[in-house]
Amino acid sequence: MRMEIDEVEGWLRERLPGLAERYGVPGVAVAVDAGGRVVEAAAGVLSTATGVEATVDSVFQIGSITKPLTATLVMGLVAEGLVELDATVDTYLPGFRKATVRQLLCHTAGFEGDVFTDTGKGDDCLERYVELLADVPQLFEPGEMFSYNNAGFSVLGRIVEVVRGEPFDRCMRDHLFTPLGMTHAACDPYEAILHRTAVGHLGGRPAPVWALPRSNAPAGSMLAMTPRDLLAFARAHLADEGLRAMREPQVTLPDIGWGTAWGLGWELYDLPGGPAFGHDGNTIGQSAVLRIDPARDVCVAVFTNGGDRKPLMKEILGRVVETPAKPVPDPTVRPDTRRYEGVYQSSTSRTTVSADEQGRLWLDQVPLGFAVQAGDEPYRTELLGWRGDSLLPAEPGHGPVAFLGDDGEGRARYLHTGRADLRTADRTEA
């Protein structure tokens, strides 16, 4: 393994600057941990406006990779006997809607999850945010299926601070950062400014906003750190047997090109070489990936601040860990146009699926709300046969979509892309 990690280190130092330039990524930072030995590399700039160089000590936002950290704080409460996974949330937050702690951790609570309401910068922001969730739609019964839910992790953050009796940020620092020696981790812009800090880029320019609202902090709105610090957290999950339960499958994922299942905060991958786990994260112009291969005792983190980051990340990950095979259309699968046609909507997109005169199926998606702020753009693509009710967009850069459920008339009730977007005829706003 030592020779392998030496080769990875040499490859990163030689190739990373060129990869960043090829894909138009302003700045990138990478860390790899093999058996406890860490190698790091960085390239590019933290902001095209300032030209400040990206280094291995620079902090980038990790976005939704924050969720496994929040889940780890919850599991700490479980280990201390202060929280029960299968207790209803209203045990800790009186009056909260029907759901259990476990369902929040594995994204099966069923209520609309992309809620990014700004409830201020004070220590009461999570309390105020959770109160607002009483008004968001319930898409399906709790436990019925998986649908990625940002809001649910803000609720978990509120549980942490209520049970601990301290603001969420302080719980994160006292129970994770300090014990794990994470010295370059910032919960907010006030801490981030003490470090070399990356700025997100949209359309090749620095984003006008550095972070999303503090009310979404437990879900991943502003936590920033170095790849090295994130790997200290990942290493703890390989070393601590008490955290192994977080890798146990809780719900099988739809066939959408993601992992195989979701655990308690972790996305789980069943690969030919063995199981792996990790998480991705995206904020305003910044993206991050974390992958952990327990059998080989390897972890890798890649952070970027803009540009065409997906192929860059894929190339780097492929040098270190096994990655899922690229989906390929199956010409023998004929899409059921009547089942799939319709309009599907969530708080972040409105998607129209229609058939043309030749029987080809087309998807037209318009971003809404937070997705617009994050830089998503409308797109149109043909949908090609792949696996049963899961189809492949012909347009590069977009993952598979799945059509799930039945509206009672033989048509799909949900368009699933990680989130379950409801057919508009079935959707009622609270």
TrEMBL record:
Domain Beta-lactamase-related positions: 17-311
One of the Pfam families matching this protein, by short name: Beta-lactamase
Domain of life: Bacteria
Protein name as it appears in the record: Beta-lactamase
Organism (species): Actinomadura verrucosospora
